[in-house]
Predict the structure.
Amino acid sequence: QVQLVESGGGLVQPGGSLRLSCTASGFTFSMYAMTWYRQAPGKEREFVAVISNSRSNTNYADSVKGRFTISRDNVKNTVYLQMNSLKPEDTAVYYCKTFKEGIEYWGQGTQVTVSS
C-alpha cells in the first residue's frame, strides 16, 4: 500500500536551515507529482511547494519563495524540502502528499519549530 514517511524536522533558531525528507513506497514514485503542505497550530493546512514527476516543474507558496527548495530523487523514492532563512512563522507540522488515481495519500507529518 502507499506509504509516505516524513523526517528531518526539529527545533531550529530563526535564520537557520533544515532539510525535510519524505520517503515513499507502495507505488511508482517517479510517475507522480509530490507536494509539501504545512499546518500551524490553530490554522488550516496550507500548500508549501510542489514538484512534478519529472522534476521539470516546481511551484511555491509566496510565503516561502526564495527560501525553500523542493527536489526529488526518483531512485531513492524521496522528495526533499530544503528550508533556509527560517522564520518563527514557519513553525508547523509539515506533510508530504501525493495524488494517485483519485485518492490523496498523506504522510504522518514532521514537526518544525523555529524559535530562539
Q: What stands out?
A: The two ends are 40 Å apart (CA to CA). The chain is about 0% helix and 55% strand. The first strand starts at residue 3 and ends at 7.
